Amino acid sequence: MQCKNNGNGRGCCFARNGAGEAEAHLSKGDFKLSSTDWLEEVPGGIADNQIFEVRFKNTRKGFYANVNGLLLKEGDIVAVESSPGHDIGIVSLTGDLVARQMRRVGFRPEKSEFRKIYRKAKPYDIEKWEEAIALEHSTMIHARQIAEELGLNMKIGDVEYQGDKIKAIFYYIADDRVDFRELIKILADTFHIRIEMKQIGARQEAGRIGGIGICGRELCCSSWISSFVSVTTNSARVQEIPLNPQKLAGQCGKLKCCMNYEMDSYIDAKKEIPRINAPLETIDGQYFLSKTDIHKRLMWFSTDPHMPVSLTALSIERVRAILAKNRKGIKVDRLVDEKEMAAEPAEAGFINVVGEESITRFDQPDRKRGGRNNRGRGNRRGDNSQGEKNTKPEGRDNTPRPQGERGPRPERRNGGNNPQGERGPRPEKRTGEGRAPQEKPAQEKRSGTQGNRRPPHHRKPNSGGKDGK
């Protein structure tokens, strides 16, 4: 069985069973303000508490009494009392956590009566509920057009039909007070339902729509915040956050709610920071406060009051000691104490969390560059195995030439300067008995860089000379 129509923010989808009756199936994660019952597996909590939390579209929830003694669990679709008629919702929380939830959201049962849970939803109730949900989007678009024609300065952000399809709640946003009496008459005549207008703020609208914040997580107003606390720019000043409107504003256009989360810890940490009303006086000159790290308990001072020049970090204790001496008219010898300089820990460099080995430790080594080849290359570059540099071969003029002049060509391997276009006889090939008489000494051969010759690993073994290895 495959669901075809979703619940439009209610956390369920609809399908038909074999008999053609409408059924609703839960889809986890498709609803706002989700609750986790961490006492679900603890026995004995459900029978004692007859109050259940029931959720509706998006962030709307309510607390209802199980007056008929139904065996309900989380995820059951129930028909509850409404005015007028009845509404369809889903049980979202049971047991002892319901009382904790009521205290958290500020619900007071002594000042209001609990509405009733009538029954578990029947196929007829679910079918009518599905029809009502299918009308919500088209109703919202038509209502926006009517409000625009009337010239009302308001925005209809969402429409929620009641489960029995005889009433609808229109959520709207407006900066000023709006006279929508004419709008209600037109909406009632157009859709033939009872109209309820409910004004919400920008934060509530963001919670109903949902989204992802810059932190990469779901919006707090959509996931768990049920009561909003006012946020001011003072929260940013206390935490030394730059007053950039684009950075401080959330998706609702208001200041981010998360700026209030760590403000208390910043206020407590700031109590230990000394107040700087004047620059620190030293024999070398004056030092001005540039910035402060509250949690590290460090204060940076600059030699320029307007620019961070030659910043020096001081601990809170050292700043207090300097301030105490400055109040007495004493200038300290130096800004940083010698004890602090000696006890200052070294800054932690790069730490390889995977391992202290090289990142290329799994690469296969190139065998062509190992062993004798490297030694041969080192000799050709002029470095021998003992780390000493070989001298250049004898007979070569190493004196620098003036710029623009060109000296004679170096001697060829056959031992002379040939005229242009002529070539001398090639040296005889090596044999096992010794070297050819016209060939240069072995040491010059190995250390020099002249001539075109094969690499050492292509030579045939020499059994006669002192270089035969």
Care to describe what's here?
With 469 residues, the chain is of the alpha+beta class. It is built from 13 helices and 15 strands. It has helices spanning 97-105, 123-134, 136-149, 181-191, 202-209, 220-223, 233-238, 245-248, 263-270, 316-327, 338-343, 372-381, 442-447; strands at residues 5-6, 12-16, 22-26, 51-55, 61-65, 77-81, 86-93, 115-120, 155-161, 167-173, 194-199, 280-281, 286-293, 298-302, 312-315. The strands form 4 sheets. A 5-stranded mixed beta barrel has the order 4-5-8-6-7. The protein starts with a strand and ends in a 22-residue tail after the last helix. Residues 376-393, 431-437, 439-451 and 463-469 have low confidence and may be disordered.
Q: What is the tally of beta strands?
A: 15
Order of helices and strands: EEEEEEEHEHHEEHEHHHHHEEEEHHHH
Largest sheet: 5 strands, mixed, barrel
Number of helical runs? 13
Largest sheet, spatial ordering of strands: 4-5-8-6-7
Radius of gyration: 43 Å
Helical residue percent band: 10-25%
Global structural class = alpha+beta
Termini separation (Å)? 82 Å
Low-confidence stretches: 376-393, 431-437, 439-451, 463-469
Strand content: 15-25%
Average per-residue pLDDT, rounded, comes to: 77
The shape is: elongated
